[in-house]
């Protein structure tokens, strides 16, 4: 039981060392994540259309 208590004591000590982001910083990161998701979504949709078009052209040959 002492090992478990020591483990959680160490976890609490380490969590106190963590620098948590402030609200403004969190919003900044959230916006970047959202923009990256939108960009990657558009990229994969465009890639899908291009590949489908090439496949359709090859099927007609």
Automatic annotation (TrEMBL):
GO terms for molecular function: protein transmembrane transporter activity. It is found in: Cell membrane; Membrane. The chain crosses the membrane at residues 29-54. Keywords: Cell membrane, Membrane, Protein transport, Translocation, Transmembrane, Transmembrane helix, Transport. Its main location: membrane. GO terms for cellular component: plasma membrane. It holds the Pfam family SecE. GO terms for biological process: intracellular protein transmembrane transport; protein secretion; protein targeting; protein transport by the Sec complex. It comes from the Bacteria. It is a single-pass membrane protein. Belongs to the SecE/SEC61-gamma family. Component of the Sec protein translocase complex. Heterotrimer consisting of SecY, SecE and SecG subunits. The heterotrimers can form oligomers, although 1 heterotrimer is thought to be able to translocate proteins. Interacts with the ribosome. Interacts with SecDF, and other proteins may be involved. Interacts with SecA. Essential subunit of the Sec protein translocation channel SecYEG. Clamps together the 2 halves of SecY. May contact the channel plug during translocation. HAMAP family: SecE (MF_00422). This is Protein translocase subunit SecE. The lineage of its organism: Bacteria, Bacillati, Bacillota, Bacillota incertae sedis, Candidatus Coprosoma.
């Amino acid at each position: 039981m002492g090992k478990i208590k020591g483990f959680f004591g160490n976890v609490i000590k380490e969590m106190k060392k963590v620098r948590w982001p402030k609200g403004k910083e969190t919003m900044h990161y959230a916006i970047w994540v959202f923009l990256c998701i939108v960009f990657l979504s558009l990229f994969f949709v465009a890639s899908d259309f291009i590949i489908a078009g090439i496949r359709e052209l090859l099927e007609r040959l």
